[in-house]
Amino acid sequence: MAELTALESLIEMGFPRGRAEKALALTGNQGIEAAMDWLMEHEDDPDVDEPLATPPGHVLGREPTSSSEQSGPEGPGAAAGEARPVLSEEEKQEQTKRMLELVAQKHREREEREEREALERERQRRKQGQELSAARQRLQEDEMRRAAEERRREKAEELAARQRVREKIERDKAERAKKYGGSVGSQPSPPATEPGPVPSSPSQEPPTKREYDQCRIQVRLPDGTSLTQTFRAREQLAAVRLYVELHRGEEPGGDQDPVQLLSGFPRRAFSEADMERPLQELGLVPSAVLIVAKKCPS
Asked: Residue spans with biased composition (Low complexity) (predicted)?
């Protein structure tokens, strides 16, 4: 039996004939090992089973021969008449065994290489994941820091705006208090003492009109709330208006509109001239209910 060619050896090892021929042709017939390396690397290629055109004068599985070698001095039939060494069955089995061991070794080397490549890809993936996580965390920290700075800035602006409003209100209060002279009595006056029983006189004289030195005023605001304060009977009505303007509540926007006072019954609108008259003279003693209406500025 003739010695097995490279093509026959690859077929004996289980490789398809088309792949074996293609591997030998593409590796330049450099031997079984080179062909096996090519088969291992390209076994998953989609076109691995496509046939490959063989150039003229090229025999798959053998070294290409020149025309001079084919038609040597002894003619083309001289090489054909030479006999190749005959291998025994044991030698053939030994050769096949070595080829199979070589294939197994190539498989192991390929598996080890793929395992190393997989480990390297996993290491790179984890590294990229850690870098991405760190970048995302830095971005979140930057956003949180910017948001905190924005909140602090807005809070500082709001506090400054409130301070400006309070200062303006205080200035307005001081100007009004200075305009109407003196300060409104914020201290509650002691309650008026109730008169004791008047002993009846035998002459049945008519009771004299009592003089009140204090006046209790209830003021109803436009929003439905009310203010109650005790004033001296000789205080001017302007003191009541100033008290209302100071205690009716702060409106957003700054300036407070002046108010106009009305009596409940009988209906009466107090003028600027009435503001200079005492409460006693206006008939608001000992108690009265006033209504606040918006006064349009002149």
From this structure: 63-83
Chain centroid to Cα 174, Å, comes to 49
Q: Please give the Cα distance from 275 to 281 (Å, whole number).
A: 11
Q: For residue range 55-90, what is the model confidence (pLDDT) as tens digits?
A: 545 544 454 444 444 444 444 433 433 445 566 778
Half-sphere exposure of residue 126: CA atoms within 13 angstroms, side-chain side? 5
- Per the structure, the count of domains in the chain is 3
Q: Please give the pLDDT value at position 208.
A: 60
Does 166 map to a domain?
Answer: yes
Q: Long-range contacts of range 79-88, CB-CB < 8 Å, 24 or more positions apart?
A: 84/2, 84/3, 85/3, 86/1, 86/2, 86/3, 87/1, 87/2, 87/3, 87/4
Give the domain range for residue 263.
Answer: 214-248+257-294
- Distances from the Cα of 76 to the Cα of 5, 54, 68, 69, 293, angstroms: 21, 22, 9, 8, 133
